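Ticket #4471: complex job returned nothing on first submit. Input attached below:
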Amino acid sequence: MSDLGISRPSGQELPKPPFHKRFFGSVPVSVTIYAIIVGLIAYGAYAGAQGMGYNWQWYRVPQFLYRNTEVGFEWGEIPIGLVATIKLSVTAFLLATAIGLLVALLRLSGLVIGSAVAVGYLELIRNIPLLVLLYLFYYVLGPIFGFDRYTASILTLAVFHSALISEILRAGINAVPAGQWEAAKSIGMSPYQTYRYIILPQSVRFMLPPMTGEVVHLIKSSAIVSVIAVAELTTFGRNIISDTYMSFEIWFTIALVYLVVTLILSIGVSHLEKKYAVDQ
Amino acid sequence: MTQADPMIEVTNLDKFYGAFQALKNIDLTVHQGEKVVICGPSGSGKSTLIRCFNGLEWHNSGRLVIDGIEVYEGAKDIRELRQEVGMVFQQFNLFPHLTVLENLMIGPMKVRKIPKAQAEETARNYLDRVHIPEQADKYPAQLSGGQQQRVAIARSLCMETRIMLFDEPTSALDPEMINEVLDVMVELAETGMTMVVVTHEMGFARKVADTMVFMEAGQIVEISPPEQFFTNPSSERCRLFLDQILAH
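Support reply: We reran it on our side without changes. The output follows.
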């Protein structure tokens, strides 16, 4: 140090932060406070249920997850419902992305009629409640065009989520600098080639976080199709409860299943994001 | 000046942004193999003019013929034209999600439909020409500004262009990187490429230019060979401009 000719003021202790900050900032104290709060909420729920004389029957729940019968292992209603929910969500999401991309490109096309159609569509969809949209598709458009409840629910979810997805896509596309368009043009690329090879691959980085949010949102809102009795997780939950009257246990379980699925999704995508961030 | 075929013919060209006239009554002819350097103060319309040459901007009146193709908004063969006319930008505009090699190959493969192996050979060949063959597998962000600009030059050359446009190619570079880019441009000039260069690098202009163009306020004020341009410009405004940028 000293041979470099750099002198450092030594020994001056900085004043410590005030006691209450150090106390509440320390890990053991934080964990304890967190555990107390969660514990109080759980106890409150339990005590409330006891108070109304609820008969907890958690031991009956596993049979709805899986069963070992004489014919062998079989999945219970809840995993089957989960698979149905995932299928429904994936199909609706793909369709929503396709519609969303179309609407986004219409708005970006620079054609007056294109953006007018797109804006009209967005305002219409965004201002109708999801439940009403579902009724429209199932009770009105369904009979007219002759599609069943499963198709109606996929269309409802896709149309509803296409509005926000188109905005996410549009923002992602706009986030790519104008110079990229010019560079692609100057080597003779068509607009399609420019989107396909230059713009969209770069937009993914901007779109991933909000798109994940939208998928999570879609999985959650897919529960609404239980009102027209489409076979999926929430519908199966309702069916089990009408057979067993275990509403507390089953709703807790169903909520937990949704939570686990969406958490896995969020964590997976944040890993993906890190990968994309390194690549650039 | 060579008396070969005209590659760029500009006749009476006007360009407006709303009510603002960016280019006024431009007349300019660039012959095959000719090197034209355009200079002038900022906002004089230099960039706008060369951006018209490959259809990044459209002129409002007058005629513009590039390599026998008439350029106007909505021209069907504009994409064919852009394949003939390479453009190097001030901000490089490399594709950040592709490696250097992929940046060079994507145009030939997707636009010219050249097989991958052949596109890669061409790409490596041009990377050699701009003296950075070892950077082929890196991403643009991992390169210095000078290296990025050389990749951008190679990217245009990979399209086997007949005309190269340079829009202030060294203005965004750190001073120590300017020469490596200019050297590549001088070498390119020696191959007989037709070049139109917007730049303030007067050393480069003296070395390479066949014709100097001075623009101000959307008009061409002076067109002359460099020996006359630098020693005895005919317009007072041009003399003042040269004094300012050559003062140091």
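The beta strands of chain A are 66-69, 72-75. Closing as resolved unless it happens again.
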